[in-house]
Design goal:
alpha+beta, six-stranded antiparallel β-sheet, 8 helices, rod-shaped
Amino acid sequence: MRITAGPTAHRSPYHFPVASDYGGGRGERPWHGPQSPYPGQQPPGQLRSGQPHPDQPSPGQPHPDQPYPGQPHPDQSSPGQPHPDQPSPGQPLPGRPYPGQPLPGRLYPGQPDPGQPYQGQQGYRMPQWVPSADPGTDSGAGPTAKARRRRARLLAVTLLVLGAVGFFGSVAGLASQAMPRRFTAGQRQQITDWELGKRWRALPASAIFPASASYPPPGSLDDDPSLTLSAQRAGIASQASCAAAADPTAAAVLDRDGCTAMLRATYVDETGSYVVTVGAAVLPGATRAAAAAKAITADGGPAGLGPTVHTVRFAGTLAASFTNERRQVSGVLSAGTYVVLYTVGYADSRPREPVERDTYAYGEMTSSGAGVARAVLSVLAAPVPSPRCPGTPGC
C-alpha cells in the first residue's frame, strides 16, 4: 500500500511527517486519523543524536535576543552613526529650513512672485535699477534731511520759474523781431527829418533851383484867376555858410538852431523889372527850422526889409548890379528841415527906397520873392513816405 501526504500533512524540520489525513486516490477510500511511523522513523518528541534543540541556538550562533559580536545594541547606535533621534551633521533640526532654503512664505532667490507677471507675459515691466543710498548721507526723516529736501525743492522750483521766464522772454523777443516795427510819433518825425535833411546832398543844384519858377500875381491883379507869373533863373551860387551868406542877425538865429549850409540862386521876373535872390538854409530838424523862421520874421517887422540873405550877382544878366544896398523887401518861409530867405529889388540901378508905401510895387515884389521861395521848398521839402518797417533805414 502507497502512502502519500494529504493536504493536512504537517512537516517539521525536526520531525518526520505523520499522516494525519488521507484523502485517498484512484478511487480508493480515504482513511483518517494518525498513523504509526514507518520503520526507522524517529518517534515524535525525540531529537536525533547531535541535533540541537529548537529552542537553543546552534554553537556559535548568537541568541535571538542578543546582538552579534560587533553589532550595536538595538537601543544604541553604531560608532559614527547618528542617533535616530539626533539629526546627522549638517542636517537642519526639524522645523528649521536647510541652509539657503527660504523661510516659509518667502521665495527662493530668483523665484518669480506668483502674483506678478513673468518676463514675456503681458503686463510685465522690466525692473528698474534703484541706486542704493549713500552710507554717508542721512536717509532718515530727521530735521536735517527734511530741510535738505525743502531746499532742493525750492531750488528746483526757482530754476523752473527762471527757465520759464527766460523762455517766454525769448519767444516775445523773437515775435517782436518778426513782427513789423511800430514807431512812435517822435521816432516818425526823427526819421522824416533824416530823410529830408539828406535830400539837398542827393539832388543836383539845377533840381533844387529850377530854371523857371511860376507864382500867382499879387492881390491887386487878381481880376483874372487864370493869370500866372514866372521868374527865370539867372544863376546858382556856390555853397556857403549861414554866417557868410546872410545878415548878422539872421545868421545868428540860423547858427543857433544848427544851420549846416546855405544854398543860393538869383532869379529875374519875366517882365525884367525885379530881381530875386533866394537862400535855402539847411537845419537838423523841422522843429528848429520853424523856430528859426519865426525868430527872423519877428526881427524884420510886419513889412519891408528885415534880416535876410545876401544878394548874388551874375555878370551879363539883369542881376549884374543887384547888391545888398539895392534890396527893397525880404521874407522868410520854412518847410521840413529847411528855411528859405528871399530878398527882392529892382533890376535897374535904383537905390533902396521904402516900397511898402507903394502897394502895387510891394505886392509884385512880395509875390515874386515868395513864389520863387515856394518853388525851391517844393523840391527840398517834398513829403516823404510814412516810416514803416521793413523798408525804412534802421529797421
